[in-house]
Amino acid sequence: MIGYFARHPTAATLLMLALLILGIFAYPSLQRETFPRIAPSKLQITTIWPGSRPEEVEQAVCQRIEDAIDSVNNVAEVICEALEGIATVTVEKTDAVSLDRFTSDVTNAVDGISDFPENVERPVVTQLGRTDFVASVAITGPRDRVDLKAYAEHIKDQMQLWGGIPKIEILGFSDHEIRIELSRPNLRSLGVSADDVARAVQRESIDLPSGSLETSEREFLVRYAGERRSVDEFRDLVVVSSTNGGQIRLGDIARITDRFKLNEERIEFNGMPAAVLSITKTTDQDTLTVIERINGFLDDARQKSPPGIKMAVTNDVSSIVSDRLRLLITNAVQGLALVFLVLWLFFGFRYSFWVAAGLPVSFAGAFFLMVLAGYSINMLTMVGLLIVIGLLMDDAIVIAENVASKHSQGSSAIDSAIEGANQVLPSVFASFATTACIFGSLAFLKGDIGQILRVVPVVMMFVLIVSLIEAFLILPNHLHHALDKAGSTQGRVQKTVDRGVNWARDRVVVPFARIAVAWRYLTFGAAIGVLLLAVGAMVGGLIKFSPFPDLDGNVMEARIMMPQGTPLARTEAVVARIDEALERVNASLSPDQPDGQKLVRSVTHRFSFNSDAGETGTWQL
């Protein structure tokens, strides 16, 4: 096979072009995201019981759901969190069942519970891990929060019409309501009770179908559309009327406001009331493509927005992906340039070019295999690609050096290429097998961490397999043509480098090796000492272990939890102290930033939410 491709005038070149074309067309199909996809394995069961205490939720809701789930097969773990007015149950499955089948089994089991206390709402079963967070968009401008929410809804609708922005959720608001506050003195003076007001509202604010009206030509549906939706409409609602035409309207006896249920459930962005659009994507969508669509929409929306409206992207996780992708490209280009430069010092331009060409060819073939395997460009696959750069170039250099050695011994170019490649084939394959055994063990890890880490060895194997094909079927053909063109003479640079290497070998390496052999026990002891130091550094904690490295980002988050029942004003005072400290840090470090930029670009406050606590209330931030 090696001889056929080395002698054939076009087979090797056609194979190389095929790999390059496959990679070029496959690369745009590779999705770009932060971490590899983890197959969803968890369900969340949410059950609301208004007005209940956590102890009641645990006994009356959690216990019943856990008992029902005991009858479901392939359950790995069940965790129930009982909070005030709500129970959240997380159920994890084993690998023996699909998520859809597991969801169906759990739903049927939960729906079969018939002895929940009164007022407990129907449990809602949802699959977790179906979406990934991309970025948030903060909208500021209107001081009135009702107007702000309405404008955020408008922007959300426009985003969905724009396309390419998958899922959008508006944060920073509780339930919207029309609040009617009655004045007791007014009720007494007019002889009206609260029940009279409640009945009037129920009677006068309805939207119901009222049958149909048939004619000889067509049928009409009749509907009573009297539901009141604005403050003015409620003010005009008649509560009591007399026979002589007197009327008492709701606006005469009550204060009516359009507002949100909870004052504390809000978000501030740079000190302004804000609506935050949280944007997530599904597993089959590309993170960088989504953020490009978001930025494109915002550029268009800013031109059309009313004066005073500001929209800014915040908490953008796509920057991590783009930064690491740039790092991969930079390292690949630098590695390719350095390999070419070193090879040129010894072999000349044409010879070095074909050896270095193995890197892009191997990557192109690997991209095609990654698409077939359903992999994406993420932090872990990029780690695998960065590691394998040096490994695949080692194989090409070994083959190229052996071919050049055969040619320098007087063999023809074609014979040197074939014999040189065949001679090192067992050694190169043994090196590949060793690498596969060492890194391949990661592919057999179980659980979520196994799903994340196994992409590293698999991607490495993809690149190395393609590099073996390139090294033994493509490279010998190009090397023998390069040797034919170059002849048997070396250039001036190559002769100078050879003299330098020979001098270093004879004057430095060989004398040092002789000393090491003569003092073999000292040499062996020094090697053992270095090994013990390395092991001791890990055992003693000098070298820390972490399954995943800390990612350099641009977002810092402080989560505050005050004692339960703390009023909102107290929480705001604590937040103000943190803001003052942050401003001092910003003023101190901003002069050191490039181009006079501020260290702190934006500050977001989200009240009544703390992901660590799993609770909501005025004491959360």
Characterise the protein shown here.
With 621 residues, the chain is an alpha+beta fold. Helices cover 54% and strands 16% of the residues. It contains 20 helices and 16 strands. The strands form five sheets. Strands 5, 6, 13, 14, 15 and 16 form a six-stranded antiparallel beta sheet that branches. A four-stranded antiparallel beta sheet has the order 2-3-1-4. Strand 8 (207-214) and strand 9 (219-225) form a beta hairpin. Helix 2 (11-26) runs antiparallel to helix 17. The longest helix has 32 residues, at 455-486. The protein is elongated, with a radius of gyration of 35 Å. The mean pLDDT is 83.
As a percent range, the share of helical residues equals: 40-55%
Beta-strand portion reads 15-25%
Average of the residue pLDDT scores: 83
Q: What Rg, in angstroms, do the CA atoms define?
A: 35 Å
Morphology call:
elongated
Multimerization status: single chain
Distance between the termini: 67 Å
Question: DSSP helix count?
Answer: 20
- The structure class reads alpha+beta
Low-confidence stretches: none
Q: Can I get a quick summary?
A:
With 621 residues, this protein is an alpha+beta fold. The chain is built from 20 helices and 16 strands.
